[in-house]
Amino acid sequence: MATPHPSGTTTAGTGRCPFTGHSTTEPQASGDVGGARASEWSPDRNETFGSAHADYAALREQNPFPWSADYGGFWAATTYEDILAITQDDELFSTAKQNVVPHVPRASRRPPLHFDPPEHTDYRTAIDPVFRRSVVTEHAGAFRDSARRLVDGMLMESSPDGVRHLAAPFAMDCFASLLGLARDQTREIREIGVRYGFAIQDMDDPVIEECSKRLYEIAREIYDRRLAEDPDPSRDLVASLHRAALDPGTVITETSAVATIRQLIVAGMGAPQAVLGSCVAHLATDLDLQAQLRAHPEDLPSAIEEMLRLHAPYRVFARTATRDTVIHGRAVAQDEPIALIFPSANRDETRFEDPDTFVLRRKQNSHLSFGRGSHKCPAATMGRLELLIALEELLARTETFSLAGDIVMMNWLEYGPRSVPLALRPADRMP
How far is CA 234 from the centre of its chain? Predict the structure, then answer.
């Protein structure tokens, strides 16, 4: 196991994470039953906000690399050390065959997630420069305008919800701004994107299929419209992918470039929505932290890093073993999928001291919320900026906000709330 890395502690901004519920899920004894591998763990499909962390802590202590018979069968990597090793070995652990649990059969692979290096590298070479800080910050004004409109709208709602009225539409607005969409496209992409996200949570196949088809059509429309405006490839995602598609030295084609836009629209909605919803839920139960961050907004970036650690959104991203191997003393066969439980790794007690405690200025906070290795999230800078602006506006435009009902969690596909009912008191003077 890894050597513990002490974390810094402070008296201000330190407290137990409000979501560390208890669970009845216990890992079962491993072994073979009737010639088939016995299931040792099953994801809880009726989580409360935080209950999963008690499950993961029990697994790390008793069975850190369990086999689950759910979703067609998969291994679950729960420790920081195991996940770090898996994400940094593209030769042994592939994303090309099965990159999520449960496996979703596709007629074609969706770039860039469904490709390993060196093909994956071609896509990242085109994508990464557009997400560099100097480009992303050009959109900060549009991000802030969206956050202000949405928070002001929540204050007018009779039953405001931190996800439906803030996190979900804000994530779509931000990605639409990055893509340089016209107002009519922004409105539709928000409507379709939010509908698609909730259909995924409901596992509503007809709506998923309908929205997915429309998202491909939208991606094609975005691609054609942006190219007609002749944007700068160093600052525009479509133009950068198009330039790569014209280069015979890359694997990118115009068809796969459009598919990349479609995939990034979905990714640009899911994770930011999940983690922003978690941040809102966390702050809604910690009025002292709210007050501190209103009084000291300069502390917000540090608070965001700690909330990213506590509430990582990804847990179904997977790798598939390319050959027989051993992980954490367990024999993993070729072609068996391994789910990377990032929320568990971020609370691994061998890596983070007192891992369930919120520490405002935690030292060595090397969390895995954006992944690691070649598939590390290209939009990490954008994600941090989204969280900063949304929470700045929410805190500045309210005197206080608290939970007004039960948090409803997303399903297994992402870790985060689907619904955060709120009671908000507007600030006397808004910026």
Answer: 26
The 3-state DSSP class for residue 137 equals helix
Q: Please give the average per-residue pLDDT across 374-398, as a whole number.
A: 96
Nearest to 346, CA basis, from 26, 81, 90, 11:
81
Q: What is the rounded distance in angstroms from the CA atom of residue 160 to the CA atom of residue 167?
A: 12
pLDDT value, residue 11: 30
Question: Torsion angle, CA of 386/387/392/397, rounded to 10 degrees?
Answer: 90
Backbone angles phi, psi at 321, to 5 degrees: -65, 130
359 half-sphere exposure, CB direction, 13 A CA radius: 18
Angstrom distance (rounded) from CA 339 to CA 320: 9
Looking at every residue in the chain, the average pLDDT score rounds to 88
- The string of pLDDT tens digits covering residues 155-214 is 999 999 999 999 999 998 998 899 888 767 777 877 787 777 677 767 788 888 888 888
- DSSP code, position 14: E
User: Which tokens go with 183?
Assistant: 């107002």
Q: What is the pLDDT of residues 93-129, one digit of tens each?
A: 999 988 888 876 555 677 898 899 999 999 999 999 9
Residue 353 has φ and ψ, to the nearest 5°, of: -70, 135
What the block records as the tokens of 95 is 């994303």
| Dihedral sign (CA 53, 30, 73, 328) | positive
Rg (CA), the chain: 21
What would the pLDDT profile of 279-292 be if each residue is shown by its tens digit?
999 999 999 999 99
pLDDT digit string, tens, across residues 328-348:
999 999 999 999 999 999 999
Nearby residues of 163 by Cβ (< 8 Å), 6 or more positions away: 273, 277, 280, 417, 418, 419, 420
417 forms beta bridges with: 409
Dump strand ranges (E) for 51-192: 67-68, 74-77, 93-94
C-alpha span between 306 and 362 (Å, rounded): 7
Q: Is 31 exposed, middle or buried (0-12, 13-18, 19+ CB in 10 A)?
A: exposed
pTM higher than the cut 0.85: yes
**CA gap 413, 411 in Å, rounded:** 6
What DSSP letter does each residue of 74-111 carry, written as one string?
EEEE-SHHHHHHHHT-TTTEESSS--BSS----SS--T
Q: What is the pLDDT of residue 33?
A: 37
Nearest 5°: the CA angle 389, 265, 101 is 105
Helix (H, G, I), strand (E, B) or coil at 377: coil
Q: How many CA atoms lie within 13 A of 394 on its CB side?
A: 31
